[in-house]
């Protein structure tokens, strides 16, 4: 998802040669192409039926992933302390379902044992149950804080991670008042043991497990299926339907499937005469959809705790057409070429900024007018991890762009190209693509394939 208002890309587009829209005699076949026609082809569990698989995935993460990450970050203890109506962003990724809030003050304590395993403890008035063991329950708030201090001291951890960070919002969930209370109940000579857990939080949120990667393709396919429905004659009557009609169809279709969107679906159109210059950040407008229009959508849902982010393109056929014009087909192929350039630059240990620079060098050499702004996916649609460009900043991104690429992490392969279309009197068309994928340590694998053919509205 992105904001679509500023002209922010002039500095990286001036001097680029716009790629010609000449179609090769033999169109290139792009890997991992997949056509999905409807969300009806994919099962969606009822809210009740989601609880068991969500908790199974959580228990696996807490048992197998968390100990490795705490060792990686050299933390002996991790505290997640939050209150009802002011939950820590990481809290809901750590607690069993169904959980809707941190009841009153909720304290999670993760303690690394000598054998490398991690104790999962709570100091709460209300016990959470499996997989947590209650170290204290009941009593007053003052007694709860005292019990937490006594538990910490009894475990004698040398480095205690707490969630404060100037750079990562997801790791900044410990409020000032709770931090003050923690330092009040702990002896002063223990205060230097409190360190930021920001790197642990980022690693916990970005790392995907084998169980999650098994279900993720199904989730992404549902999102792509709803897009296909929206970009069809089932929804669109040319000359009557509006871009807002299509957006609301998608929103209501997800609601029907009991799947939350994490932002309002966005739909826009382009046609001959639509303003689109080299320095236009995002080309497109809203209105009544006509034959010959190019459509674009941006959609994101969350299911089984995992989020998607997808952008695809459609063409509304004229009465005498069986396919999109050759110039538009060539432009989409250029968008797929941009994807391939970007994903081949994914190398373990490279920073997001390094991937961006390598991608820009190759797209310039290929005379592709492009912009890259890819981001991690997972428990959040805009998840923590290596930022690979920003739509309004095609230079280095401090901190988030410096984060290294790890294996088994998921991404929205997001960006765009602009290309002249002969059938539009050489006007630029803006191809905006985004597909959910993961990096296995060697290559990028699209979770439910990618769009390499136009959605066609007849």
Radius of gyration: 24 Å
CATH fold assignment of the largest domain: Creatine Amidinohydrolase
Q: How many domains, as an integer?
A: 2
Which architecture of the largest domain does the CATH hierarchy give at level 2?
Alpha-Beta Complex
Instruction: Enumerate the strands of the largest sheet in spatial order, edge to edge or round the barrel.
Output: 4-3-2-1-5-6
Shape: elongated
Share of helical residues: 25-40%
Query: Can you write the helix and strand succession as a string?
Result: HHEEEEHEHEHHHEEEEEHHEEEEEE
Mean pLDDT equals: 94
The CATH class of the largest domain is identified as Alpha Beta
CATH superfamily of the largest domain: Creatinase/methionine aminopeptidase superfamily
Distance between the termini: 28 Å
How many helix segments?
9
Number of strands: 17
Q: What multimeric state do the chains show?
A: single chain
What's the story with the biggest beta sheet?
Answer: 6 strands, mixed
Class by alpha and beta content: alpha+beta
Question: Which runs of at least 5 residues are low in confidence (pLDDT < 50)?
Answer: 2-25
Strand content: 15-25%
List keywords for this structure.
458 residues, alpha+beta, Creatine Amidinohydrolase, Creatine Amidinohydrolase, Chain A, domain 1, 2 domains, six-stranded mixed beta sheet, 9 helices, 17 strands
Give an overview of the whole structure.
This protein is of the alpha+beta class. The chain folds into two domains: 10-44 and 208-457, Creatine Amidinohydrolase (Alpha-Beta Complex), CATH 3.90.230.10; 74-196, Creatine Amidinohydrolase, Chain A, domain 1. The protein is built from nine helices and 17 strands. Strand 14 (409-421) and strand 15 form a beta hairpin. Helix 6 (210-230) crosses helix 7 (243-256). The longest helix has 26 residues, at 47-72. The chain is elongated and about 80 Å long.
């Amino acid at each position: 998802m992105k904001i679509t208002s500023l002209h922010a890309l002039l500095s990286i587009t001036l001097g680029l040669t716009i790629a010609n829209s000449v179609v090769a005699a033999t169109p290139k076949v792009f890997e991992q192409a997949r056509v999905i026609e409807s969300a009806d082809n994919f099962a969606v569990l009822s809210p009740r039926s989601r609880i068991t698989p969500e908790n199974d995935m959580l228990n696996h993460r807490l048992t197998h992933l968390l100990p490795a990450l705490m060792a990686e970050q050299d933390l002996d203890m991790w505290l997640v302390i939050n209150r009802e109506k002011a939950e820590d962003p990481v809290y809901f990724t750590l607690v069993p379902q169904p959980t809707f809030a941190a009841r009153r003050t909720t304290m999670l304590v993760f303690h690394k044992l000598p054998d490398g395993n991690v104790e999962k403890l709570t100091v709460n008035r209300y016990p959470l149950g499996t997989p947590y063991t209650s170290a204290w329950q009941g009593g007053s708030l003052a007694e709860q804080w005292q019990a937490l201090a006594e538990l910490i001291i009894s475990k004698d951890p040398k480095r205690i991670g707490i969630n404060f960070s100037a750079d990562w919002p997801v790791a900044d969930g410990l409020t000032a008042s709770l931090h003050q209370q923690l330092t009040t109940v702990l002896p002063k000579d223990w205060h230097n043991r409190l360190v930021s857990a920001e790197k642990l939080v980022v690693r916990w949120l970005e790392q995907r497990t084998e169980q999650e990667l098994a279900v993720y393709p199904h989730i992404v396919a549902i999102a792509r299926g709803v897009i296909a429905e929206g970009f069809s004659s089932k929804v669109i009557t040319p000359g009557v339907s509006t871009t807002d009609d299509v957006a609301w169809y998608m929103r209501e279709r997800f609601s029907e499937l009991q799947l939350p969107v994490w932002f309002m679906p966005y739909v826009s159109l382009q046609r001959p005469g639509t303003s689109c210059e080299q320095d236009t950040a995002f080309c497109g407008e809203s209105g009544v959809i006509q034959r010959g229009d190019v459509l674009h959508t941006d959609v994101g849902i969350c299911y089984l705790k995992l989020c998607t982010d997808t952008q695809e393109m459609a063409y509304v056929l004229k009465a005498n057409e069986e396919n999109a014009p050759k110039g538009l087909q060539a432009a989409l192929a250029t968008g797929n070429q941009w994807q391939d350039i970007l994903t081949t630059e994914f190398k373990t240990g490279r920073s997001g900024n390094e991937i961006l620079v390598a991608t820009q060098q190759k797209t310039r050499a290929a005379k592709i007018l492009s912009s890259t702004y890819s981001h991690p996916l997972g428990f959040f649609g805009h998840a923590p991890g290596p930022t690979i460009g920003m739509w309004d900043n095609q230079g280095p991104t401090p901190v988030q762009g410096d984060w290294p690429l790890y294996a088994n992490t998921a991404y929205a392969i997001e960006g765009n190209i602009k290309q002249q279309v002969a059938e539009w009197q050489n006007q630029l068309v803006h191809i905006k693509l985004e597909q959910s994928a993961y990096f296995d340590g060697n290559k990028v694998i699209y979770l439910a394939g990618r769009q390499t053919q136009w959605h066609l509205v007849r």
